[in-house]
Amino acid sequence: MAPPRTTRPRHLRTRALRATALAAAAVVLSGVLTSCGSAPAGSTTAAASTSTDGAFPVTVTNCGSKLTFTKPPTRAVSNDINTTEDMLALGVESHMVGDFGVNSDGPNGKAIPQQYQAAFQQVPTISPSYFTLEPLVGLRPDFLFAGWNYGLHTGTDLTPDGLAKYGIKTLALTESCAHVQSGTSSVSIDDTYQDLTNLGQIFGVRTKAQQLIDSMKTEVAAAQAKTAGQAPLRVFVYDSGQPAPFTAGGLAMPDALIQLGGGTNVFAGLKQSWTSVSWEQVAAADPQCIIINDYGTPSADQKQQFLETSPITKNLTAVKNRCFLTLAYDQLTPGPRNAEAVTAIARWLHPTAFGLPTTGA
């Protein structure tokens, strides 16, 4: 059974794979493998653009493994909103046959930002939940963009090696490689740039990828120029959880974004990605400001209300000063909205550097 909504962020909520479902899937999948050259009944092959920017074949290195492509994928699938936005930002929606885990009216719900709504409408949403084996393979994809604990899980068939048996080449979010590669010591917005570079090479849109990266770098540099010389403030990221808070450790993307915005993640010393801590640890760190990850239920307002009324958090410096910043899930996870998150954090932590009142942006 999947854990409750309040204990884990959406990309780490394990979708339990029932043994009976897997047994049934094995029968179905054996039939799928015999007809991989044709599209599923009632569907059409994606009308992918034939124009490419860059020579093929191309090889990218991802989580220590090499992936080679002789041509751009034509039946691509994404998992989660941030990976989907990476692909849409590069204009490869015509290469996609579906997405998983993007949007829902339920507890995992996440609003699609306006700048991507038109492109999202061109990609079929297969399920508001993360992918499982049978629905994914039923699409006959040739490419999956996901991440470790963003749909990929060790010890299951939902790994690059497991999915390769069905003709699927899998690219994992660079930030998520920390889950499967020992010795990772830090996270950086360069991880997001690497994802965009990889996608640019794989889909033959290198120029567009570089233009997006350059634009993001320019925005980040502008924020840093404003906050140069400012003393960093202590920041706690509150994703979810009341019995125990789920937060960003030193190997999760918010750690890098907070640093770039002129702050210090109070749990930067934890060499983990998203992880559970205790409220006693939060109290001991006494953050000066709190970022609330906004997605699904409870709402950001409800999370803030909890922090303001809980006996163990109501006396935190951040709570007493009402220093809260709500950011969307796809701003805090690796993706094209990371640069705007840096700007938002910088304006919030150091408003006077931007000519703003001390209440922030």
Q: What fraction of residues sit in β-strands?
A: 15-25%
Give average pLDDT, whole number.
87
CATH topology type of the largest domain:
Rossmann fold
Order of helices and strands: HEEEHEHEHEEHEHHEEHEEHEHHEHH
Oligomeric grouping of the chains: single chain
Number of continuous helical runs: 13
The CATH class of the largest domain is Alpha Beta
In helices, the fraction of residues equals: 25-40%
What's the total count of β strands? 14
Specify the overall morphology: globular
N-to-C CA distance: 41 Å
**Rg from alpha-carbon coordinates:** 21 Å
In terms of per-residue confidence, which ranges show pLDDT below 50 for 5 or more consecutive residues? 1-10, 12-47
How do the strands and helices of this protein lay out in sequence?
Elements: H1 19-33, E1 58-62, E2 65-69, E3 76-79, H2 81-89, E4 96-100, H3 114-120, E5 125-127, H4 133-138, E6 143-148, E7 151-152, H5 160-164, E8 169-172, H6 189-202, H7 206-227, E9 233-238, E10 246-248, H8 253-260, E11 263-265, E12 274-276, H9 279-285, E13 289-294, H10 300-309, H11 317-320, E14 324-328, H12 329-332, H13 338-349
